[in-house]
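TASK: fixed-backbone design
INPUT:
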């Protein structure tokens, strides 16, 4: 853990201006993407759905840029895969890192409710814009107002969970697959478009899966079996109250494990997918078994290769964490928890430093900007911690330098028994 702290401090010392700049780009870019998507979504639900995936994509771009800025300071990573000095090759590595990080990052982004937060912000902005349009139409007297407001033919956000989303996902995935890596290599200018297509189908797919899970949960809660389950729990609490305490404690513990342990490990897997270091050990072949008989079919082979390319970077990262051992990973989890704990502490200290002010003239005007200060301070620290930890997991993969040869023994003068004849 001490080595991780030393590496993290050295990375922050050498690269903090670039980290701060890219962190600001990610925060402002995500906010701008949501605002633009909401503005368009007020009048076109499909347009809003097409623009909303830009929010996590821009955030990922900032993280990838910060991690690549830190790559020059990662000694073990540099020993395994030295970074090219060619600008074209560096841009290509940025594109590859962005491509490999989209699926695990968006999965993490969705699992920890960041995507739900984007959806809520998108819906609020779209409703605000629609209210502005309604007021203009009502005051303008153009005859569209019925019952005090114009009529709209769609509800904001419904296209995100409709058959239209399925069509968009299929088209985006098909177009992304048709472009392929070879075409991106030969035409680098299309790489931003392919990254957008990748983010589009992944984000919309996860949104639909979340909505399907919510629908199933609502349906299950209305079933008779669920009512029986609640009755059994109530009866058990009345008969033996400690059982309910254990029940609630286990549920609380599972939630805390997800936040304290799984979240930092998921972030480390994303970092590993972005850096994409090929391990010397053989990874399990994902194509063995029943799929080997259909390899000759070119379409199946291309789809198989496309799916493997999205899974292998994360699989490599998980394998690295397993090899690093519990001591290193446990220390990283502890440091990650400490960094997250600093967020509410910094917010509390910031409000106490500023002191009481009027809500309308002060907090409403600049409150949101002030509360970005903890994020601007902690996100670079978190990225440096992740990069330093990932570099520490590579210690066993660094090729060992050959030891210096032992000095030749000094000449020993021959004894008389060897020279006399």
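OUTPUT:
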């Amino acid at each position: 853990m001490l080595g991780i702290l030393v590496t993290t401090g050295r990375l922050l010392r050498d690269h903090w201006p670039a980290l701060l700049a890219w962190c600001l780009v990610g925060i402002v870019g995500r906010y701008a993407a949501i605002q633009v998507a909401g503005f368009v979504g007020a009048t076109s639900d499909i347009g809003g759905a097409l623009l909303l995936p830009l929010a996590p994509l821009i955030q990922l771009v900032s993280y990838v840029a910060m991690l690549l800025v830190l790559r020059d300071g990662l000694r073990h990573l540099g020993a395994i895969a030295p970074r090219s000095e060619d600008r074209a090759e560096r841009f290509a590595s940025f594109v590859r890192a962005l491509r490999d990080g989209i699926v695990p990052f968006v999965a993490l982004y969705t699992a920890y409710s960041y995507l739900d937060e984007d959806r809520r912000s998108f819906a609020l902005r779209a409703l605000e814009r629609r209210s502005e349009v309604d007021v203009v139409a009502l005051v303008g007297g153009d005859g569209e107002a019925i019952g005090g407001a114009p009529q709209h033919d769609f509800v904001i956000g419904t296209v995100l969970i409709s058959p239209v989303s399925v069509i968009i996902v299929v088209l985006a995935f098909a177009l992304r697959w048709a472009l392929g890596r070879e075409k991106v290599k030969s035409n680098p200018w299309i790489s931003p478009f392919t990254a957008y297509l990748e983010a589009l189908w992944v984000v919309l797919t996860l949104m639909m899966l979340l909505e399907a899970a919510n629908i199933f949960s609502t349906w299950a809660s209305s079933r008779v079996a669920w009512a029986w389950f609640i009755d059994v729990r109530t009866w058990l609490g009345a008969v033996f109250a400690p059982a309910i305490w254990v029940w609630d404690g286990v549920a609380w513990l599972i939630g805390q494990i997800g936040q304290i342990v799984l979240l930092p490990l998921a972030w480390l897997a994303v970092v590993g997918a972005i850096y994409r270091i090929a391990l010397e050990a053989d990874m399990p072949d994902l194509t063995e078994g029943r799929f080997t008989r259909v390899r000759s079919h070119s379409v199946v082979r291309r789809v198989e290769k496309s799916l493997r390319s999205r899974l292998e970077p994360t699989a490599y990262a998980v394998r690295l964490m397993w090899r690093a051992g519990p001591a290193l990973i446990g220390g990283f989890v502890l440091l990650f928890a400490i960094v997250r704990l600093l967020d509410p502490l910094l917010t509390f200290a910031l409000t106490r430093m500023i002191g009481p002010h009027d809500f309308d003239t002060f907090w409403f005007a600049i409150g949101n900007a002030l509360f970005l200060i903890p994020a601007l301070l902690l996100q670079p620290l978190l990225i440096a911690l992740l990069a330093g930890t990932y570099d520490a997991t590579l210690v066993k993969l660094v090729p060992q330098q050959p030891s210096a040869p032992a000095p030749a023994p000094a000449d020993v003068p021959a004894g008389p028994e060897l020279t006399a004849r």
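COMMENT: The CA atoms of residues 77 and 309 lie 21 Å apart.
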